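queue> pop job 88
queue> type: inverse folding (structure -> sequence)
queue> payload:
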């Protein structure tokens, strides 16, 4: 028996991989449904490598994985828009020439943007604009697709159940869960902890060492773009800038900003208590940073100042602390030395989910 804790995309794919290997699998999710937290609340970008000029490995893995994702989940891919990357003249960590060279190096198609697009940007602040091939995914469709695959593979999904701890039970493990006011114990030969921002919470509750992680409470603004920008996506590289991407499940665009999307952050350090990210999110007094986002982004793309605010998506984003240095997005695979059958997985980007297959055997 395999128990997977966490029903995001990484948890679902882990469960499917195990089931396809002939193992009985139970997937435990604390909310009422799958793909409802960080897998849904994000930029919906299928990274094709362009975003990572400071992490060649991350960029190259994206180049490998995006075509596979598009082939595996074609009904979840939204590609009916043009995407433009621009490089700032000021405060950018790469120059326009460096970005273009980087794209050629990783085999990412890039071409100069047409004149009517270039004119939308302020030439005093933008050094170059390129059209790239990068699309988005529809998380709502992906949720339905994964749910159907789990059912077809015979995976038992236990929703609305909180995994409280993992315990040693003889030669095997067990997961204590709480649901409907009662408790149950699920025996398991292997347990996969795919709880993302709550990774350390389950480890600590199980009496195990935690993993150094950085958490950010983030806001993704949902906006209605002015007519001239509705059919495109824009990303300004590479520093304290912004991105506007179609968000297919809502028919709007996300507007994110490196400086204003994170509202605050904290770190889990080895030997310290792990904060409950869900409780932090629930208790936060939400006040949108959209005015700051759009004001700053409008300096580079003046027409963006006409974007109309519709809503905000709030979530806790979790990364490895070392990712802050070079913007890399490695996948963490942590095998507990005290419970060898327990594997904690911290996913990074949706399109890189296939990288976990090597550790699933």
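queue> result:
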């Amino acid at each position: 028996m395999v128990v997977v804790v966490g029903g995001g995309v990484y948890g679902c794919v882990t469960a499917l991989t195990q089931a396809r290997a002939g193992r009985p699998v139970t997937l435990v999710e604390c909310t009422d449904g799958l793909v409802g937290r960080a897998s849904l609340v994000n930029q919906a970008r299928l990274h094709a490598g362009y975003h990572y000029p400071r992490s060649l490995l991350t960029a190259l893995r994206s180049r490998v994985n995006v075509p596979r994702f598009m082939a595996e989940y074609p009904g979840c891919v939204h590609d009916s828009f043009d995407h433009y990357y621009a490089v700032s003249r000021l405060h950018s960590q790469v120059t326009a020439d460096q970005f273009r060279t980087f794209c050629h190096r990783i085999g990412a198609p890039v071409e100069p943007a047409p004149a009517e697009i270039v004119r939308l940007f302020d030439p005093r602040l933008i050094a170059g604009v390129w059209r790239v091939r990068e699309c988005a995914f529809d998380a709502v469709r992906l949720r339905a697709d994964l749910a159907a695959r789990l059912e077809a593979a015979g995976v038992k999904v236990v929703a609305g159940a909180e995994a409280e701890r993992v315990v040693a039970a003889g030669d095997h493990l067990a997961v204590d869960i709480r649901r409907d006011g009662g408790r149950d114990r699920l025996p398991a030969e292997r347990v996969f902890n795919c709880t993302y921002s709550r990774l350390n919470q389950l480890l600590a509750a199980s009496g195990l060492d935690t993993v150094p992680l950085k958490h950010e409470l983030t806001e993704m603004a949902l906006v209605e773009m002015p007519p001239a920008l509705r059919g495109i996506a824009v990303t300004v590289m590479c520093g304290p800038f912004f991105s506007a991407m179609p968000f297919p499940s809502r028919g709007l665009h996300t507007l994110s900003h490196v400086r204003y999307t994170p509202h605050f952050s904290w770190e889990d350090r080895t030997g310290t208590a792990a904060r409950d990210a869900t409780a932090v999110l629930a208790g936060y007094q939400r006040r949108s940073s959209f005015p700051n986002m759009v004001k700053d982004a409008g300096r580079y793309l003046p027409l963006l100042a006409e974007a109309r605010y519709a809503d905000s998506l709030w979530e806790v984003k979790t990364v490895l602390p070392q990712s802050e240095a070079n913007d890399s997005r490695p996948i963490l695979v942590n095998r507990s030395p005290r419970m060898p059958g327990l594997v904690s997985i911290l996913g990074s980007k949706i399109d890189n989910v296939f990288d976990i297959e090597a550790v699933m055997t």
